[in-house]
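I hope you will forgive my troubling you with a question about protein structure. The record follows directly beneath this note:
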Amino acid sequence: QVQLVESGGGLVQPGGSLRLPCSASGRIFSSNALYWYRQAPGKQRELVATKTNSGATDYADSVKGRFTISRDNAKNMVYLQMNSLKLEDTAVYYCYLFQRGNGYWGQGTQVTVSS
């Protein structure tokens, strides 16, 4: 079994920054992919960023150039650095791990961008 725990959410002003860590524990295999999703009120959950075990990354168009996903395999951590935050970035952010045909979600962390 795998457990994911996000943290680092909070209230930030437009233009500000936040860094979201996600800690993974349990049976973590070397070949996996890590993702950050978000879900705003009344909207579907959307993929924000992807980081494969080989280091490949991908981002939603709405966050390209502002968000950066990174991982520390030795610590089983994945991070989402969010800069130049906008009102529309307000959402619950979830990390997701996929390995060997199984996917695992964290409980989410709230990010609110407001003046």
Summary: The chain has a mean pLDDT of 95. The radius of gyration is 13 Å. The chain is about 0% helix and 55% strand.
